[in-house]
Amino acid sequence: MLTKAVDFYAPEVLEDPYPLYARLRVETPVFFDPEWDLTFFARHRDVVGILKDRRFGRDVRHALGPDEVDREVYERIYPSRYPTWTRYIRDSFIDLEPPRHTRIRRLVQWAFTRRASESYRPRMETTAERAIRVAVERGHMEAVAEYATPIPLTMIAELLGIPPADQPQLLAWSHAIVRLFDREVTDEEGRAAERATIEFVEYVRELLAERRRRPGDDLVSAMIAAEHEGDVLSEDELVSTCILTLNAGHEATVHAITNGLLALARHPDAYRWLREDPEGRAASAADELLRFDAPLQMFERWVLEDLDWDGVALRRGTKVGLLFGSANHDEAVFGRPEELNLARNPNPYVSFGAGIHYCVGAPLAKVELEVAYRTFARYVTSFHAEPDPADRVKSLVFRGLRRLPLVFD
Ligand code: HEM
């Protein structure tokens, strides 16, 4: 297999990674990067194939002994220095494999159905409308803080039944916790992530006790009540699933809305098409915008057994990196992939993953995005964006901006 070092953090790649991905798909669709210690896959068929193949997993502990994994890597993923973080964040069901994953997912899944998700629509619409009206009056907005953040935040707070006054605190904990997923985390950030987890766990325990006393119309109450063939979620499973919902559901959606608005600003023809019928076209626009510039660009999997992947030998206990952003632009699957075509159909993008970990919040996220674009298009005739490249999030996993100033024409 080819060894290759790719500078994913080069300024021009952070700004626009798609030309690099296009080259990789042609020249080296599979390569090992020693810097990342990952075998990267750039093609749609490999990314989806690996996500669906049980010889790869998000967790490794059920399949490999601790001595079969590089100690340094193991310690980075399951840091013993931060036991609360490891117990509640690493042991949430996104990081489990069957049978533990299957059990928990089955119990929480029904709370995330399309019907349950639709019930949040009116509250999201109110939030979006309030934000856009103020901004249109003023003639400009900073879209991350004023639009992309409040819509998912309102939705998740509603979902978990959290009072508005507590929301900023939850967001601060969530930001501190996710820092430990980053390779470039400092010791100070690690300690802050552990502290944030301890406080968050305490908060969720109190929330659970309150909902047990007085069940409401929210996900926490629904998860407490969830039962399948006599099985229920344990207290620890409830706590970690609540925290996971907040972490998984928030940042990706903020980046999705931000990236979507930026793409619309840069493609006035597409925006005009959306504006002709926001009610009817926002859902398909939301799908295409998720494909065009996905908020989550790379996911990893452990190789759980020695295997041959289409002529490439993969060793048990190593990791692969799946380039979602590249898969979404694969010309073998999408006609004219670099074109933003809001009516694209079919649109088999991988932004929500595939296989057993396919985003359980996808129905909800789709309603949020649809509401965000539809409301925006109803109020804003035309607009342009003035992003500062320095505001790009420096990450191979998350793709987004810290700030996105928009000016309405
Ligand atoms: C545009 C927004 C979103 C994107 C792009 C997104 C993307 C993803 C992806 C790619 C995965 C699979 C990860 C993997 O295979 O390793 C995933 C899983 C998950 N997502 Fe989302 N997500 C979004 C919004 C949400 C929301 C709103 C929620 C909940 C409120 C949520 C909750 C989850 C959970 C709980 C999982 C784990 C599922 C499992 O392991 O079975 N996500 N998401």
SSE topology sketch:
Elements: H1 11-15, H2 18-27, E1 30-33, E2 38-41, H3 44-52, E3 56-57, H4 71-77, H5 83-88, H6 100-109, H7 114-118, H8 121-138, E4 140-142, H9 143-148, H10 150-160, H11 167-178, H12 187-213, H13 219-225, H14 235-266, H15 268-276, H16 278-292, E5 298-303, E6 307-309, E7 312-314, E8 319-323, H17 324-327, H18 362-379, E9 383-385, E10 405-408
Parallel strand pairs: 2-8
Antiparallel strand pairs: 1-2, 3-5, 4-10, 5-8, 6-7, 9-10
Helix pairs in contact: 8-10, 8-18, 10-14, 11-12, 12-14, 14-16, 14-18, 15-16, 16-18
This protein binds protoporphyrin IX containing FE (HEM).
Outline the structure in words.
The protein is α+β, with helices and mostly antiparallel strands and 409 residues long. It has one domain (11-408): Cytochrome p450, CATH 1.10.630. Helices cover 52% and strands 9% of the residues. The strands form three sheets. The chain has a five-stranded mixed sheet, with helices on both faces. The longest helix has 32 residues, at 235-266. The mean pLDDT is 93. Bound molecules: protoporphyrin IX containing FE. Protoporphyrin IX containing FE (HEM) binds at residues 51, 58, 93-94, 105, 156, 244-245, 248-249, 252-253, 256, 295-296, 299, 351-353, 357, 359-361, 364-365.
